[in-house]
């Protein structure tokens, strides 16, 4: 007797940022994944296929932005236009083709020396400061205007808009406190780079005047009186997620950079209430948002930042605890979805080993379950068990694999 005709499936993609790790002496030479109690992840491993993934390629240390582009099915070498545009999109600025975007810090300068690159991690009043800065008019370069918006704490984004601008300019950020800021210089000999450097230098000078006399800074021990601008990038707009893949995509995240990648690709971006991108985040708000999004979207991506934070903090016990929290949320989430019609993926965008305190090129464990996905012998979700699984892939392989499992891939040939 024939089986019923297949129906296209949806995909729920849960990503624990930077969760992959290396053996840690203090944990008995185990990784946080090996040590953590994760009954729900282990269940996915038991009913699905497991393995390891090099998010970009072996030996390449991925940034979260480049890796997410890759995991969403876009070649980062073609479409990554620098950190600035991603940050600017992440704070909700609308970018146009040709815009030059920067990530900025509110900083404290005294007697010509940067004494704090984060203005005491200022939390209040940055909206008012940004509003005042936004009024600045550029006069030295005709036809250039600025758009400036605050992000979280001391962070902000700047956009230079106008004809013939170039990201080939240096930064004014000395990168260390106790040094004077630098003059912005063109780093290629083109009219566009010269114009852009000139406009940015004027903006930095004028913003210093606006900020140092602003009421928000009155009485602040570390006034937010100076802007450091870096990560210049010229927006290249890739085809939208829907154009490229023919399906609707949703990104659920609190982290600006990930929201920026989602906006860049024209995906629906949801920042659930209570989701912070910090240790105090509400994972269940994200889970609920994912369940809702699956009703209208084909590809729902849920981003969790805290594993990466614990890696950067070099805190293995915290990483174990975060993984166990994620596992509990996953149990809650899996009960609310139909695994028969949903492909579920769980993986990371890179490893952030606690011993390295930064991103490494170590491949990350991955599990794919749901639908009629093949089942391998792996029964525990961790870096070592994953070596016995079916998959050994690169990030660029993942999206086509998911499209195939969802029943949406085009056949190659007859
Ligand atoms: Zn990351
Ligand atoms: Zn990181």
Tell me what you see in this structure.
There is one protein chain. This protein has 414 residues and is an alpha/beta fold. It has 2 domains: 10-80 and 237-405, Alkaline Phosphatase, subunit A (3-Layer(aba) Sandwich), CATH 3.40.720; 86-233, no CATH class. Helix content is 31%, strand content 19%. It has 13 helices and 13 strands. The strands form 2 sheets. It has an 8-stranded mixed β-sheet with strand order 9-8-10-1-11-12-2-13, sandwiched between helices. α10 (283-293) packs parallel to α12 and α11 (306-313) packs antiparallel against α12 (316-335). The model has no long low-confidence stretch (mean pLDDT 96). The protein binds zinc ion (ZN) (2 copies). One zinc ion binds next to loops.
Q: List the ligand species.
A: zinc ion
Low-confidence stretches: none
What is the total tally of β strands? Answer: 13
Mean of the pLDDT scores? 96
* CA(first)-CA(last) distance: 26 Å
The ordered H/E elements are EHHEHHHEEHEEHEHEHEHEHHEEEH
Number of helices: 13
Looking across the biggest beta sheet, what order are the strands in? 9-8-10-1-11-12-2-13
> What oligomeric state is this?
single chain
**What is the approximate shape?**
globular
- Which CATH architecture of the largest domain is right? 3-Layer(aba) Sandwich
How would a textbook summarize the main sheet?
Answer: 8 strands, mixed
Q: What is the alpha-carbon Rg in Å?
A: 23 Å
> Structural class of the helix and strand makeup?
alpha/beta
What is the third-level CATH name, the topology of the largest domain?
Alkaline Phosphatase, subunit A
Strand content: 15-25%
What's the helical proportion of residues?
25-40%
Top-tier CATH class of the largest domain: Alpha Beta
The CATH superfamily of the largest domain appears as: Alkaline Phosphatase, subunit A
